[in-house]
Amino acid sequence: MRKNWPAFVLGGMLAALAVFFALGLWANPRPADLPSGDSLQPPGAGHLLGTDNLGVDIYAQLSGGFFSSMALGLVCAAGAFVLGTAAGMAAALAPGGAAAAVDLVIHLFLAMPQLPVLVVLGAFFGQSRAVLALIITLFSWAPIAKQVRAAAAAVRGRMYVRLAARYGGGLWYILRAHILPEVLGLAAVNGLGVCGRAILQESSLAYLGLGDPLARSWGLMISKASRFSGIYFTDYWLWWLLPPVLALLCTLLCVRLLARWLERRLPGRATGGKQDGAA
């Protein structure tokens, strides 16, 4: 029973967040981009979480920000999964010169400070969400590639894989039958971790004014609220600033814990020791 409670808790938290924000997006009659009440109206029957300084419903903005952030995070996670898996496999299986070149590119991207580079590229290449997703993906695949490279190299060095190659198993057979089943789960779990980092990076860029100003973003909500004159000397921060901060923290916590839970339950770790001995 003790092994099952983390999955139950994580599933319940994610389901509660999704239902709460889905109700705010589809069951709440207030628009997320137009005023629907008085300026800085406190939470009440008309507006569950109140309104901002323009009279826009906070609950509707939070709900739109959740699905917008999750969509961006999943797109970045999928892109980083594909790029990281391909680069890691190339670094582990390609001939010497090509593998060294791919490995050099991986380490170059790992050495770059992500947030400053994201800020510079976001300022130069525009504020659309497509450009933002592309930039975040390009700076998220390298950690996945590094782990995939190490895992694929470990599997390739196992005794039964070397025996398969010696008895006529080609590269594609070994890749399909032995390496990919071991490393795809690891890459997928790390891709889920990219989803959380992408949400945080998008919020950070939006907070700095480098995101799409027309998109629903928690970072943009936090930026507008924190820059409102005198917000910390009133009660406005309770329903304008605090909700997007809590929504961001809860979402990131759920995604990170889910990735960690899945990582601990991977069917096989490509480290080599036990399975070599068993063979």
Protein architecture, described:
With 279 residues, the protein is an all-alpha fold. 72% of the residues lie in helices and 0% in strands.
In what range is the share of β-strand residues?
under 5%
Q: What value does the average pLDDT take?
A: 83
Helix fraction bin: over 70%
Structural class, please? Answer: mainly alpha
Whole-number count of domains: 1
Fourth-level CATH superfamily:
MetI-like
**Radius of gyration from CA coordinates:** 23 Å
Order of helices and strands: HHHHHHHHHHHH
Q: In the CATH classification, which architecture applies?
A: Orthogonal Bundle
Describe the secondary-structure layout:
Blueprint: H1 5-27, H2 58-93, H3 96-111, H4 114-125, H5 129-138, H6 141-156, H7 159-166, H8 171-207, H9 218-226, H10 236-240, H11 242-264, H12 273-278
Helix pairs in contact: 1-2, 1-11, 2-3, 2-5, 2-6, 2-8, 3-6, 4-5, 6-8, 8-9, 8-11, 9-11
Short descriptors:
mainly alpha, MetI-like fold, 12 helices
